[in-house]
What we know:
This is Hypoxanthine phosphoribosyltransferase. By secondary structure, this protein is of the alpha/beta class. Helices cover 25% and strands 28% of the residues.
Amino acid sequence: MxxxxxxxxxxxxEIQAKVKELGDIISKEYEGxxxxxxxxxxxxxxxxxxxxxxxxxxSEVDFMAVSSYGASTKSSGVVKIIKDLDxxxxxxxxxxxxxxxxxxxxxxxxxxxxxxxxxxxxxxxALFDKPGRRTVDLEPDWKGFTxxxxxxxxxxxxxxxxxxxxxxxxxxxxxxxxx
Length: 179
Ligand code: XMP
Ligand code: MG
């Protein structure tokens, strides 16, 4: 598995330090407001778990799954809810927890859905941001790392469902997805 990685972008230690910083920020920002953290499955599940352990105030989690790239590395532009939230978001202070923002299509769709359900506030925390690939005008409220336009895997991020269990994030060798 490790041999399929061309370059490590962020080590486990660097990621953990950044996730703690983000947890501190969210804890301060939402003190006394019982935020609902919405994890976007599957890619964000490891980030969500680590982030949640670094949130020191009362807060809740829920999970949502939307259509992914499948075995491709580009967004189809079609977003579909595969698994919806269990709890109503009306009046809630929602924090969308995303692994990576690429075109921004997934996120703009989710924000739209949650707005229509009358959330009190909606913010976004993304561990990785690829601003160079944006097709919609959208910025996360908080982000971990800005990354170049390369397909990355690890720490929850997959290629065809593999590599999510790498504790670091790296660039996949192009021959893995071009052959
Ligand atoms: P959009 O284009 O809607 O895409 O912002 C966001 C979702 O696309 C996936 N994605 C990636 N997954 N490595 C991955 O493993 C990547 O480099 C990558 N770029 C985008 C991811 O699921 C994200 O939530
Ligand atoms: Mg995702």
